[in-house]
Amino acid sequence: MQRERPVREAPRAPKAEQYEEYLGGSPEAERVIFEKLARDLMEVQLKLRERGGAAGIDRTFHAKAILGVENATLSIRTDLPEDLRVGFAQPGTDHPVIVRLSNASGIRQPDFAPDLRGVALRIQAGPDRVHDLLMTNHPVSHAKDAREFVAFAQAMADADDPLSTGVALLAKLPLAVGWGSALRMWRNIAAGTGREVRSLALETYWSRGAIMWGAAGPVRYRLRPAPDAPSAPPASKSDPDYLAHEIATRLTKSDVVFELCVQRYVDTERTPVENGAAEWRDEDAPVVPVATLTIPRQDLDTAEARAIAERVDALAFDPWNTTEEFRPLGNLNRARKAAYEAAAAHRLGHRFLTPTPMRNQVVGRVLETGFNVVNRVVPWHRLPTPLGVLNLTVFRQVLRRDNLIDTEIRESVPKTHPVPEPVPEEMRVRRSYDGSYNDLSAPSMGAVGSAFGRNMPAVHRPDLFDTPNPVTVSRELLQREAFVPARSLNLIAAAWIQFQVHDWVNHKRYPAGTISVEVPLPRGMTWRNTPGGKPEKVMRFAEDEGLQAGDGTRPPILFANHASHWWDGSEVYGGDEAVARSLREDGGAKLRLEEGHLPSGPGGIPITGFRDNWWLGLSVMHTLFAREHNAVCEALRAEYPRLDEDAVYHTARLIVSALIAKIHTVEWTPAILATEEIDIALNTNWSGPRDWLTRLGAWLVDEHALTGIPETLPEHHGVPYSLTEDFVTVYRMHPLIPDDFQIADHGSGRLLDTLSLNDVMGARTETAFRKVGLPNALYSFGIAHPGAITLFNYPRTLQTFERDGEIIDLSVVDIVRTRRRGVPRYNDFRAGVHKPRIRRFEDLSSDPDTVARLKDVYRSVDEIDTMVGLFAENPPEGFGFSDTAFRIFILMASRRLQSDRFLTVDYRPEIYTPLGMDWIERNGMKSVILRHCPELAGFLPRDASAFAPWRPVMPGKEQPRVKRR
Fold first, then answer.
1. For a designed S-S bond to 106, which of 48, 86, 799, 810 qualifies (C-beta 3.0 to 4.6 A apart)?
2. Which domains does the chain have, with CATH numbers?
3. Are 251 and 300 in contact (CB under 8 A)?
4. Taken in order 695, 698, 699, 705, is the CA torsion positive or negative?
5. Which top-level group of life is the source organism from (predicted)?
6. Residue from 866, 868, 875 nearest 829 by CA
7. Active site residues
8. CA distances (Å), origin 758, targets 213, 448, 478, 764
């Protein structure tokens, strides 16, 4: 009987990780280090721009191109060894190649200046497969790793002559890397730059770093001139572009031909992967030819050739533009992933860096120490106003440093990628539907579906989700016992903040009745979880959907925002293209309205960008700003008749969104935080300091604040932009909403109706609104007060709230969501924003009844729920919410403006139109109201914002009595 032969398995490809060692011990730790190095290289780019006098950002290295062609060919040898036949490297195949030859310096200096030379190849192996190979004409790097590489670049950035170069090498570099490394780097640079270079066609170029070559494992590659290459004349000492002239002349006569070769990995001693300064010697790792590179004979002195050279010069070559079969290896290559992407984005105007002046760093640290001492005795809000503003400015710097936590899900091990797609041209001048492409270097940053960030580490305590019982907390500490008004505000302010929150944040929930949170009820209590449902012993509501990583795992307590994180008016315009287009008039720029009101939609809720939790206040705001959008469209059409309807729509959206951001910044916020310090600080955020003392403080501590954020560059402060779970928590402001409303006639002051919140909520909203009309609704809200954000003032109506087929107690939901999303409890939250912990319940409230109730509900001060603590805290005089909540606001209010391209570098007439810039500058909440309801002019406050109480009309004696519903 014949025995079956065993099937031979193909050799398994080695994994890249087996050859690598990560700085900090892990890919995650190394990524943080490399992000810092990338920022350092961006600073080098800025220094080189200043030194060279260039108008824009150039390459950090290899700034001056000698040759750029798109018609080269890589021909793979027919006798290629079996183990090297990987991917594009198949015997007898040809591949088109883009070639860029360059000098290595970041300054466009004469060709005869001492320098290294480089070559970048882009091999087009298929429609979606590109391989970038980068090499330099010296076999080793001057730096063994990324830290040395950046230290050298920083040391040399200020050197613009031989003397300063010597000072940099002998003084700055040893301080950064030590004398031993500095001397070795100097020797390598001297060896590489000290040779005469006659022609770049006659140079040999080495990869320095290794790459995987499929199953063959790590290799270094090399490009060497063909053996029969014609010689070149001696190097010129006077022609600054002699290398370009030489290769152009050479190409008019013949092809330029190179051999592409590789050296195979042997072992960590003879062929190290992590040390870029170590040579792989030919006797240890023999050179193996794999292909021939041919740059065909051509005339480079034509308009077409010059245009091609310009295109090639604009490309961003990156060794990570490849496939996993050819993954780059080693510290230097991994650093390139962050550094090349950042530098290329910086050069293309997709990413920005504003260095912090040394005086800001020094003075900021001194003032931080001083205010830490002062604030133990006198809080910021009791200091003289100029000192209070300065205190807040310094503290914002502390929060930026300590309270921005990156939660983005990233690849654990660096991965290769295709060449990034170019930015769609329309995305440069308009907001996308889903928030993508705001940051052009990271198109998905802040878009719909991206993760909520954190201002402090998450606390995941499932054992405390129901301790103390959330229903008990709600009934004992939150439930409204008697309406407590906030007399410095009107009810428009309450409607406004919900209107804004719907633009900013939205946790996606599972469909009702599928995956639910169950809250046990206190003894003897039952709850109907659905309309007409039977009484149950648990309260049930839909669970939040967690965010999944790309590998299918679910990080703990990480959630996606299903609104965009940007301030882009998505509550008006929608969060995706389908919704946005459905809201527009057919083929037009305007939003659809029916006799001035939003069109009716399913379930009686109007069709608009965000339709959840609908009530009269939201309908008023949405209607007002839909009308404002249409008014802007009319103005744009009149001023710019050549704009098409799509351009009118998107420009109007930019204008209205920026106007909303301005209103919130300089009107709503100073209204709810009514102190002189906040008024100064917020107006400084938008338009820069008004007085010399504030200007001096900004110059000393935060130079970027001298102009107002719209005149600065985007800045994420080291962490990708997102709104945070902590931000969501401090904006839980449901006590602002009353349980009933008086609707009055603005002409006579006559009371028209008294409605409960249920009467103006959900499907009943629009019937009431259309009966009342926008002028009367605004007037009625303008003369009414919202509730104070305090304990015992949560609307009872919202404690039996029907939503999506569920009946929920929203106060319980607020508590449960905060716990389950990992937001620290109140005392830890205080500590997280640099406030002293409370030790006794009496430290939180001076009211004996409140203290007694807190003690009844909580076993210790460390158990107090965040929302409860924020409501219980005595706020600074004039504040509508607590100082602890305000600390998150200090950080995030500026960040929402500072990170947004359309509110910084692209807040300009070319994008918004001159009319748009003027519209934003001249308008505010009062003018928006009066444009659409001019009859309300006499009721608006003279010396305060539209969010302050309005002047009521005194009704006549004949006013009829209205039956209360």
1. 48
2. 62-332 (2.40.180.10)
3. yes
4. negative
5. Bacteria
6. 866
7. 502
8. 68, 31, 19, 8
